[in-house]
User: Fold these one by one.
Assistant:
Number 1:
Amino acid sequence: MQKRLITLFSAAIFSAGFIANSAMAQIRFIEGKDYKVIENPLPLHKAGENEVLEFFSYACGHCANLEPRLLKWVAEEKPKDVGFYTIPAVGGRMWTFVAQVKFTAEKLGLDHQFDAKYFKAIHEDGERALLGDKEKAFEFIMKEGKFTEEQVEKAWNSLQIKNSLSKSNHLWQQAKLEGVPALIVNGKYLVEMRQYDELFDVIEFLLKNKSVTVAPKAEPSKEDSRSQSTPAKEPKESKAEETKSSEKAPKEVKEEVKEAVKEGKSENTVAKPEEAKSDKSDNEATEESSKKESSEASESEEKTVQDKAVKEEKKAA
């Protein structure tokens, strides 16, 4: 009996400790201190997927120092259902140049290992020319991927790269970022930069407690399925949607006409809003005209009676 009580007591202590630790985990990291909430959240790369996004620059020494730890987290610690994405920041000549290097390498198929090598060349090997010398940057890319100069030049000058640079600047402004490295969880939570180990603890906390809420799937209409399969576009799309909705109106009128024909009415009996309003105005005008004529008739009759009375009085006199 005593042994059983001891077992139950131990289990109770363990449960209390687990609950306490869970509670501590919930309050361990605080908004405004350990992370900030982005007022205008960034779009996710994949709808419904938890993600970590890094803004960085090859010109940034702190980004270079973080890179090895970040690659280790991606390879060994990152949950499989969490996406990891990087965007080079733009903003001055140097940052824009190295951002174009990153986007060009990415377009040619070079992955995060290229980032580590480019960081090392600049910040450890002292190859500072890679921060602004196009010829040196091309040579580096060609060597890493065994590309021809023509291939690199074509990618460098492509419309895709120009759009990527523009998008990077747009997202930077939207998130109101002030420096790099910047790590953003689920497009909404900006992690405050501290010691690296604690940094990844904050990321883990946000992924667990601020996960993306996936709405239950409903039976989509054809228009819904089309909108789900394509990424969100610029506000111009809203005008297109307005046009679509306005184009539906004639179809609805035709349906009303068909119903009217079935009931034995002619198509002309289906009044549109303007016609109904006109009919109402005509009825009101007719009614007012009738009232006016009736009033004039009664006044004329009353005047005739008065005239007769006057004549009778004159004869009597």
Number 2:
Amino acid sequence: MRRGGRQENGLVPIVEPEVTLGPGDYTIEETAFWSERVYSHVFRLLHEYNVMLARAAPAQGYHSHK
């Protein structure tokens, strides 16, 4: 995952991490814990590889809850 000239030329990576814990009864706290760990790792790597998050756009169909 190298940024190089890709983002400068208008191309952006598609990143869609999904947390699936599998079968079982999980509390909202457990789900939040694992989601936070996954998203934290993903964003740390995006930063490490110099992906410019300021140019990131939410996925199509994303609706902000205000």
